[in-house]
């Protein structure tokens, strides 16, 4: 049987789509106070500027468009009301000079937000912007408590006070019928400001500061709010399903 040429052109697209099902739930729109549980000093703005010289806000115009962690830039970590497993995540964030934050996928696996602008690629570590943060074991000797973690393949950070983006494809850990983990969580792909910084990175367990207790198939997203000023004008979690 012969197929029309146009249909043949579609076959590669149809094949690639097998690896990803249609989104099973509505996206979580998280750049809004109403999307979170206890919010502390987190607030909304229409316009916000981060200082390029100091770890503070330069100016804030109250409103409804931008989520930020308060005038002092230091308040509680926030936990989303909705949960996710496999997901496509889009983030637009801004931090002033020297500031620090992070997003914990499924409350456990942190993608670091840090002012790492201008740092050489060969000096980038698991603590820098774009890193999948290290894990931590308090029972280990001093100097070796932190382990694993994955620095970004290149430093894609832009200058403090500018808006930056993350695009993340994340695959949740897998479990058998008895609840035993059969596969680790995985960052399939991460782009920072349009540059690919991670591809197919497994995370064997929660990173430092992540939720305690056993890993699960679905959990809320957490944003760090106690390390320095951070603002978000887009934070969308699109539940999906990867093979």
Helix content: under 10%
Output the number of helix runs.
Answer: 1
CATH topology: Jelly Rolls
Structural class: mainly beta
The radius of gyration over CA amounts to: 19 Å
Sheet with the most strands, sense and barrel status: 8 strands, antiparallel
Mean pLDDT across the residues is 91
Number of domains: 1
What is the CATH H-level superfamily? Exo-inulinase, domain 1
Beta content comes to 35-45%
The first-level CATH class is given as Mainly Beta
Task: Report the end-to-end length measured between terminal Cα atoms.
Answer: 31 Å
Q: Please give the number of β-strands.
A: 18
**Based on the structure given, which CATH architecture is correct?**
Sandwich
Shape: globular
What string, H for helix and E for strand, traces the elements in order?
HEEEEEEEEEEEEEEEEEE
Low-confidence stretches: 1-19
Characterization of the model:
By secondary structure, the chain is mainly beta. The chain has a single domain (21-242), classed as Jelly Rolls (Sandwich). Helices cover 5% and strands 42% of the residues. The protein has one helix spanning 5-17, and strands spanning 20-21, 28-29, 43-50, 57-68, 78-84, 87-94, 100-105, 109-114, 135-136, 146-147, 164-171, 174-175, 181-183, 185-192, 195-203, 219-223, 231-239, 241-242. Strands 2, 3, 4, 6, 11, 14, 15 and 17 form an 8-stranded antiparallel β-sheet that branches. A 4-stranded antiparallel β-sheet has the order 5-16-7-8, with no helix packed on it. Strands 1-18 form a two-stranded antiparallel sheet. The protein is globular.
């Amino acid at each position: 049987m012969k197929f029309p040429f146009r249909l043949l052109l579609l076959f590669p697209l149809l094949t690639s789509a097998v690896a990803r099902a249609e989104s099973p739930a509505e996206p979580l729109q998280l750049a809004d106070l109403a999307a979170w549980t206890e919010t502390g000093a987190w607030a909304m703005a229409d316009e916000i500027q981060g200082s390029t010289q100091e770890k503070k806000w330069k100016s804030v115009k109250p409103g409804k468009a931008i989520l930020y962690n308060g005038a002092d830039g230091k308040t509680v970590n926030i936990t989303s009301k909705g949960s996710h497993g496999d997901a496509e995540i889009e983030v637009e964030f801004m931090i002033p000079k020297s500031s620090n934050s992070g997003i914990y996928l499924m409350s456990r696996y942190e993608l670091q937000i840090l002012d790492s602008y201008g740092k050489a690629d060969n000096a980038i570590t698991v603590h820098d912007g774009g890193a999948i943060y290290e894990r931590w074991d308090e029972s280990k000797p001093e100097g070796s408590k932190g382990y694993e973690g994955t620095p970004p393949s290149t430093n894609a950070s832009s200058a403090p006070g500018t808006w930056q983006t993350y695009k993340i494809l994340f695959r949740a850990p897998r479990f058998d019928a008895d609840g035993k983990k059969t596969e680790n969580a995985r960052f399939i792909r991460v782009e920072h400001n349009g540059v690919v910084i991670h591809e197919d990175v497994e995370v064997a367990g929660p990173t430092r500061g992540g939720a305690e207790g056993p890993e699960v198939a679905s959990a809320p997203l957490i944003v760090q709010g106690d390390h320095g000023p951070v603002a978000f004008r887009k934070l969308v979690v699109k539940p999906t399903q990867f093979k």
